[in-house]
Amino acid sequence: MFLPLAVALLGVAILAWAWAVRPSHDRDWVPEQSRLPTATIDGDRLRIDNLRNARYRSTTDFDLRWEAQEFDLAAVESAWFIVEPFADWRGPAHTFVSFGFRDGRYLAVSAEVRKEQGETYSPVLGLLRRYELMLVMGQERDLIGLRAVHRRDAVHLYRLKATPAQARALLERLLAKANAIAAAPTFYNTLTANCTTTIIDAVDALAPGTVPVGWRTWLPGYSDDLAYDLGLIDTDLSREAYRDAHRIDGLAKAAEAAGLEGVAYSAAIRSRWAGSTISSPTR
After folding, report:
1. How confident is the model at residue 4 (pLDDT cuts 50, 70, 90)?
2. Can you say how many angstroms the Cα of residue 212 is from the centroid of all Cα atoms in its chain?
């Protein structure tokens, strides 16, 4: 009887400790997550500060560029969903989104654990208010290339069934989230405030109930199946075929080997759909 009581008291003590911790912006962050992006919107004009555009030689050897870039929100044309499985079994994965503009540029937006120097990710610690949450905004060559080329993970890229107006609205919700985090630090949570639920929260704010939270959002390696079943992915392929057809890490490696950047890089990783029957929703 003593042992169960001791375990229960220990659990209470751990939870009390976790809830006493407060999030902070003032830590010794890893360089690639050292700056928080912020967005300024004036009508259709969007300016992003601290947009990341790194050049990687490996996951630990890279040149960081932090840029200020401007975009025309009236020129948002598309939204894309990216899934990066990173384990021997399908469940664990990172997800993020990218937004296409009429001029061919793309803006990638990724909700991530903001790691301190020497820190590694643990899903258990992610339940205990151990990590802060951040949004990384950057070039596709950075966010996709890091994962496909240097981490050597599979990367799946899906165009979402979203009109330009819907894609813009989703982007603006994520921009607001980034600004809120910059103004007040917030904790990551493995189940309720992770890479996938951050996207779902933004979608839900625009269209409540569109994406139900459940095991396929807690195990993001299955989130593309969920999106497919909900009719959110723009494809005519079968459930058995769509996933392999949208794997683009090989294209990303070829684009980086060719030295492509910016518009050319984003076009190259989508080259298999050039001239295809993928639809272009209208406003």
Report:
1. low
2. 18
